[in-house]
Structures are given as C-alpha cells and as structure tokens.
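We now fix the convention by which a protein and its fold are recorded. Think of the row as the fold of the chain written in a discrete alphabet. Here is one such record, which you should read through line by line.
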Amino acid sequence: MTQVRYLGFMPAKKYLVTLTQEERQQLQKIAQSNHHSVREKTRARILLLADTHGKDGSLKDAQIAGQLRCTSLSVSTVRQRATERGALPSVKHKEQERRKARAHWTGSKRHILSRLPARPHRREENAGPCNCSKTA
C-alpha cells in the first residue's frame, strides 16, 4: 500500500496561460459581446483571469471558479485547451472530426410524402388487438 505524504504546498500549475495584447483584446470583446454564447463568454473570462500577465497575475482555479460561478474543473480544462490549441480556438466549439455528412432532401415535400403509404392498413375483422389473426 502506498502512502501519501503531505508536502505542505500545492504543486505548480501545469498549464500556464500567457496572452498577447491582441489575444487579450479579442477575448475582452468576446466576453462583453451579446453575439456569443454564454459558454464562449465564460471561457473568455476564464482565460482573462488566468492570464499570467494580467493585473493581479494568474489567479487560482478556485478563485476564478468562485468569481465566475463555475467549477474549478472547467477552469482547469479551459487552461489546458488554451495551452494545447491556443487561446482563441479554445473558446470556440471544436469541430467534430468524424461527423457524418448531413442528409439533404432533394425535391419538394410532396415528393417526400409520396414515398409514404397512402393510408394505413385496415384491421381484419377477425383480428386480435395487435392485428394478428385469431386462432380457434
């Protein structure tokens, strides 16, 4: 059985976010606009608070989560994505890699409805509740 020792300090952050001035301005626009989803605005705010070159330096995940009313797991996930993909792509939704192509109907509704049966099948007079034939 392994023992866990308390070292008295937390390990250093694995994913540090450093934003350029241009990225910071674009994230501020996203965070303040009404044209983006709430999820994207929250992610932009997380990155602005996690920036090491910010006013107060980088805040801890729990502090960011408390200010933005989200979980610390989402803060750490956004940090990780920002260091792997970049700041701006981590805010947007990632495009699915193996997404199926959309099925497009060619033709009018009448054309689609003409493929359906004209009327439902009639019930047999001697049929049971599930339209099966009664046995004697």
